[in-house]
């Protein structure tokens, strides 16, 4: 990877899910030397601090649902608007926005902030979950299970229209990787809309390096690629510090090989790294591994 001007953007939202601690994720990852490690790879790195909306993350109201059954709707909407503006400003400086969360609802804001610059944005969604629910299909009402659906124009009109009106992504420009815990409505939606999906069984059969290579070829006509990586894509034997662990995931060594391949494409223009929860972690081990993941996103290799 050539030298990149990276803007680290902390996104300490916990409003999309019910477990306390994920709002501490950005600072836990910083504590493990994120900026230092990325700078040592030769990149020009600026830490822009944390984005906050009108509601502070420690004051979440996780028991309040709106008329559509969405939990913390106003807080998620407000935060998403603030984050979208910060991401767009980073892009306007020709920088690479690297958003560190925080729960996965933040991707509503991060990808909405990309939409004015990229008309045909591709997305690699590496996650144990599809995050493609809406208010009708979600079993919980937690918005961290809905960001991809929102970005495709499904569900709450107010969330869909964040930053500017309408869907921000096209079905044919998304690749799901490593999924292994899909709700029934998500399975139906993925099949009906022909969304490219490599389940964890596919990853085990092909290898993550092959999956990433195939995914990049599939997205080759996009004008940019956004990576959204949830640490719960990793196997629980590897990580403890995340809120929705699912057995049978990707091992860190496999992940780093795949990310090394991804780092070589010039189409990669932005990334999210989400769902690190230090309150559930063991001696900040997950945050340490998140920094290692970040290094490989930005060109680290074993030799």
Automatic annotation (TrEMBL):
Pathway: Nitrogen metabolism; urea cycle; L-ornithine and urea from L-arginine: step 1/1. Its cofactor is Mn(2+). Its EC number is 3.5.3.1. It catalyses: L-arginine + H2O = urea + L-ornithine. InterPro entries: Arginase, Ureohydrolase, Ureohydrolase_dom_sf. Keywords: Arginine metabolism, Hydrolase, Manganese, Metal-binding. Pfam families: Arginase (PF00491). CDD domains: Arginase. It is an enzyme of class 3 (hydrolase). One of its GO terms (molecular function) is arginase activity. It comes from the Bacteria. Binds 2 manganese ions per subunit. NCBIfam families: rocF_arginase. Belongs to the arginase family. This is Arginase. It comes from Jeotgalicoccus nanhaiensis. The lineage of its organism: Bacteria, Bacillati, Bacillota, Bacilli, Bacillales.
């Amino acid at each position: 990877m050539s030298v990149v001007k990276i803007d680290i953007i902390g996104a300490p939202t916990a409003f999309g899910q019910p477990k306390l601690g994920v709002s501490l994720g950005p600072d836990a990852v910083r504590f493990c030397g994120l900026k230092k490690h990325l700078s040592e790879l030769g990149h020009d790195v600026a830490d822009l601090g944390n984005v906050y909306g009108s509601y502070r993350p420690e004051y979440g109201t996780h028991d309040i649902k709106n008329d559509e059954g969405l939990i913390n709707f106003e807080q998620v909407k407000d935060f998403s608007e603030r984050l979208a503006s910060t991401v767009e400003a980073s892009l306007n400086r020709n920088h690479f926005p690297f958003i560190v969360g925080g729960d996965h609802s933040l991707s509503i804001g991060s990808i909405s902030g990309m939409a004015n610059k990229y008309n045909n944005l591709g997305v690699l969604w590496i996650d144990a979950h599809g995050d493609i629910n809406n208010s009708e299909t979600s079993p919980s009402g937690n918005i961290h299970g809905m960001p991809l659906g929102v970005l495709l124009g499904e569900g709450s009109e107010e969330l869909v229209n964040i930053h500017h009106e309408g869907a921000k992504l096209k079905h044919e420009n998304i690749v799901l990787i490593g999924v292994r815990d899909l709700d029934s409505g998500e399975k139906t939606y993925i099949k009906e809309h022909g969304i490219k999906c490599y389940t964890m069984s596919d990853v085990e059969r092909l290898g993550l390096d092959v999956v990433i290579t195939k995914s990049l070829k599939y997205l080759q006509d996009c004008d940019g690629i956004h990576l959204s990586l949830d640490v719960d894509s990793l196997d629980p034997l590897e990580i403890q510090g995340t809120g929705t662990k699912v057995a049978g995931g990707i091992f860190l060594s496999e992940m780093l090989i795949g990310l090394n391949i991804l780092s070589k494409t010039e189409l990669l223009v932005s990334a999210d790294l989400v769902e690190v929860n230090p309150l559930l972690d063991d001696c900040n081990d997950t945050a340490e591994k998140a920094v290692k993941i970040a290094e490989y996103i930005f060109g680290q290799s074993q030799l």
